[in-house]
Amino acid sequence: MFQKEEVTGLAIICADPRANLWKFSKEKLFKGKVVTPLLVLGGGVCLAHQDVFATEAHFLIGQAHFAVANFPKINKITVVGHDCGFYRMIPRGTFTVADKVKDLEIAADVLRQQFPGLEVEAFFGEVRGKSIAFKKV
Ligand SMILES: [Zn+2]
After folding, report:
1. Which residues hold their Cβ within 5 A of ligand 1, which is an ion?
2. What is the CATH number of the domain that holds 132?
């Protein structure tokens, strides 16, 4: 159990259990920190494609505002993405890994506008055998 003052981070992460991004993020990105995860399929993809996912983006931003308001020590928001299957929900075209990395930057910018007082960073998780390597974007 943690006290609310121990929570110093918020993470928006794709919930796909095959990638297991939350497990690896805890081990590699948030070691020793208490971070509250917003685990949704697609993670921050909806923030980068609000023309398609207005409802999902509204929900996610609302959850983030609730977390930041209720955990007063949160000073950083981290967006964690990967080569995500959620892109199949977007009707137009195909998306390369480079496109998906760029979308993480867009999602981070959306969060910077929403939370100007907080640090925002983004990581792309690449599968490496049975683990994930995170690259800061
Ligand atoms: Zn995903």
Report:
1. 14, 16, 84
2. 3.40.1050.10
